[in-house]
Amino acid sequence: MEIVNTALAGAPALLHAIPHELLIGGRWRTAQDGRTFTVEDPATGQPLRDVADASPADGLAALDAAVAAQSEWAATAPRERGEILRRAFEIVTARTEDFALLMTLEMGKPLSEARGEVAYGADFLRWFSEEAVRISGRYSIAPDGRSRHLVTHKPVGPSLLITPWNFPLAMATRKIAPAIAAGCTMVLKPANLTPLTSMLLASVLLEAGLPDGVLNVIPTSSAGAVTGPLLRDPRLRKVSFTGSTSVGRQLIKDSADTVLRTSMELGGNAPFIVFEDADLDAAVTGAMQAKLRNMGEACTAANRFIVHESIGGEFASRLAERMSALTLGHGTDAGTDIGPLIDAKSVAKVTELVRGALDDGAVVLAGGSQRAGAGHFFEPTVLMDVPLGSSILAEEIFGPVATITTFSTEDQAIAAANATEYGLAAYLFTKDLNRSLRVAQHIQSGMLGLNTGLISSAAAPFGGIKQSGFGREGGAEGINEYLSTQYIAIADPMAE
Ligand code: NAP
Hints:
The chain is 39% helix and 19% strand. The protein folds into 2 domains: 6-267 and 470-484, Aldehyde Dehydrogenase, Chain A, domain 1; 270-419 and 425-457, Aldehyde Dehydrogenase, Chain A, domain 2 (3-Layer(aba) Sandwich). Strands 14-15-16-13-12-17-18 form a 7-stranded mixed beta sheet, with helices on both faces. The protein is an alpha/beta fold. NADP nicotinamide-adenine-dinucleotide phosphate binds at residues 162-166, 171, 189, 191-193, 223-224, 227, 242-244, 247, 250, 265-268, 299, 396, 424, 464, 468.
């Protein structure tokens, strides 16, 4: 009997229905030079859809539209902005299957994970619909008792939002929702590998009542050439970037001339520490989540498993057994646990890191190679006894590869965890409360999962320290990235 993939059967109609042009000033339009580029399915290499390819002139037209819409948008009632976000949350949630399928097609993650991302991504719309009406200020009496201080917050102004390909919906809503809540207008440049989800999201926001020009979307195959002129334009007030540390460094330099407000959500190299008293079942389950969510293509992915020497062998063999049992395949196939990596370049990078570790003396307990045939697949891999100094411990792997090293003392574990230029996420498994608080105090990371492998939440401040960037997305902090503070000194009202 032929097995029919019902999810894939719906793909042509969905791909046909979503917008594929630039959104500028509330209108979908072709690029000025008529160019397009092709989005592909990473599981097959097959083309999915051509989309308009913004030129530098289109980028400036998008900024013109954002600037034109800014003052009226900033004057809208917070409740109105919140209600648009709430409606968008309802629509995205109602269209969970469409968003999930689109992300699976253009990014490769299994449908079950894509549905999880729809819930997570939509949650930013809901969270910031609630935050829009809670932008507060303060009024105080100056210490000398005479003058008064009034502190208020205003939208920063037109913002450039640049997003990566790994979470096509959530990385967009994590920026768009607080910007809308704060009253900022935007130009969104999605990753060229996965622009389709952003385009569907933009159409939902228009349907939810977002006024023309508040959100402009410019997919492009020439990121630097299109965003460069915007960064140099004094009308732009903010750039919020999520992506690699190397591109982030460049954008910080490019933002210097206009002294632009910047938020940088950059790369990670998360340690995952397991102490000898940890619940080993929970630690292995947490490891599977922290390592394999999104095929390991997550900035929060656990890269370096640092395990107490007394349980290192047991932890490694249990993890290898679980990882070897996973099925690779197209994300729409019901039996698929692990989808493809995003492109051939990613597979080549992971292959090189694994080879380097093996040359350095690491031992393979599971996987170890790319899968032959169509698509960009790499086997879930466990490497034991990875020597310190191996480049796989220094670089972001961005693939389904777990490296395991062991330690004997708490100080050694902390030193190993902090031996990286990154400082985004970290994970810690122990039943000892004092130890967990003590170690957490010393771990250099913006976020820490204590006895859990899952840390992302719209209600929590997401972000890093060191070369993982600065600024926070989500939580009560997230909206501050889009607000500027104004202080008004008031003369003594008691004086005649
Ligand atoms: P990337 O290569 O840095 O690209 C990110 C975005 O920047 C894309 O939209 C890209 O456009 C654009 N871009 C590239 N070069 C640019 C330039 N010179 N000027 C302006 N924009 C430019 O990163 P990625 O490969 O998409 O994403 C993976 C990285 O993102 C990993 O390092 C991961 O850790 C990080 N990440 C961090 C977080 C976080 O919250 N900290 C979350 C998710 C991912 P094109 O697509 O056109 O190249």
